[in-house]
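Thread: "does anyone have the structure for this chain?"

Original post by V.I.:
We have the sequence but no experimental structure in hand. Need at least a predicted one for the grant figures.
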Amino acid sequence: MILEVVDLYIKPGEEAGFEAAFKIGAAESLALAKGYHGHELLRSADTPNRYKLFVRWDSVADHTEGFQKSPAFQVWRGHVGPFFESKPEVDHVVSLVKVDES
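Reply from O.Q.:
Generated one for you, tokens below.
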């Protein structure tokens, strides 16, 4: 399993619009992608226009070759792209240690 970690900076004052656009259409586009296993969008408590998007994929290729080269990506980008202050920074990571507190 691969975790895609994305740093998103949204134009100041456009956070509510971005969040609505993400929930309305962008999240659905992700969910339809091959190899997709879920996502989480978080907003910074310190920097209100900074977000982290975590997406779980079967493989890096499912993200880069599958989703990013699909029509669904264009739909995703159409919903949220207009809100970006700068180009998203993307990294793919593999979990080494996980501790869950219950």
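V.I.: this helps a lot. The domain at 2-93 is CATH 3.30.70.100 (Alpha-Beta Plaits).
O.Q.: and The longest strand covers residues 2-9.
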